[in-house]
Design brief:
The protein is mostly beta strands and 138 residues long. It has a single domain, classed as Jelly Rolls, CATH 2.60.120.40. It contains 1 helix and 11 strands. The two termini are 17 Å apart.
Length: 138
Amino acid sequence: MLGYNDLKTSSGVYFHVKDLANNGIGVMVYGNTITNTGNAMSASSGYFTAPVDGTYYFAGGAIKDSDNPGSDVDLYRNSQVVAHSYCSTTATSQHCSVVATLILAKGEQVSLRGSSNNNFSYAEFTGYLIEESLSLSP
């Protein structure tokens, strides 16, 4: 008899990228990959692509410089904002962070993006597959 573990197609999907390779305006791209099990995250493009249907957890954040105006950090699922954070203008650097749990279909993309009115000095983005969705075929 086959069990749940016998039907799973992935052995794990999780990633952690950091250190901006661009200014953080638009899709954030990263210069350092800490881990990328399942190879679903492209640090050079800034996109995570779901390798299997399932429930995923994502967290990301960015630091903006104090001399820049207020700014936004958004977590996108394909072209839709699913989490939003605003960094106000203050005398010190500000950290914006977002988190989300998403049900994704294979091939859907998730990215962390900064608004066009600000440069960010640092960012990190992490995520992992909580549970793969299994479909039973007749």
